[in-house]
Amino acid sequence: MRLGRAAAILSAAAWIGYGWGAQSVLPFLAVRRVAAGGRRVALTFDDGPDPEGTPRLLELLARRGIRATFFLIGERAARYPDLARAIAADGHEIGNHTWRHRNAWFLGPAATAREVLEGVRILADLTGRAPVLYRPPWGIVNAPALVVARRAGLTTVLWSVQPEGLRPRSPAEQLRHCAHRLHDGAIVDLHEAPGLPGAPERLLALMPGLLDLLADRGYAAAPVGTLLAASR
Ligand SMILES: [Zn+2]
Questions:
Q1: The model's pTM
Q2: Going by C-beta distance under 8 Å and a sequence separation of 6 or more, which residues neighbour residue 137?
Q3: Structural domains in the chain?
Q4: Which residue among 50, 184, 191, 212 is the active-site one?
Q5: Regarding predicted confidence, which is higher, 1 or 211?
């Protein structure tokens, strides 16, 4: 009994270091906003590519002359390679949103490394350019994820404005959220694929209002990497 209890305490302590410990240092290691100077923000689109949403989003961004950062899921990019290439061809930045979008708290070290590195490999193969930015799914990491990402030369990027998180929010609510929270150097976390059911439709309904809001407030949009380069 005693041994069992000690083992339970030890494994709980190990898990706290592995998952919660890594999570608690993440805010100090990850980029959440960029002090790049000037009225600039970064729009970031997670979870794609998506055969319905991505082409419409690309068209909208091209029409408004906006370049953004797309955090693509490796297995989706492999399923829709033309879309991944189209995103890159339009001058957007592509970041790594891992291979299969798994929750790092339920992955061992080897599986964690595979999630991060397979994402890099697939996106590099498809676009001819290895991603240098990494966004962990849901912003959830474990200790190996941080180590592997750092060794692979990836900068971990979270966000400072998230109009829709774990629950669906109407485009109007999302726009109000942005109007309250926008700031210089903001990194806005948006979702161009489900994830949450209906996310691409809500995003496409949000985008015209969001781009008008940026213009009204005098904000230009640029990819995360551009803002990071300006801040160094
Ligand atoms: Zn995601």
A1: 0.93
A2: 97, 98, 101, 102, 103, 104
A3: 2-231 (3.20.20.370)
A4: 191
A5: 211
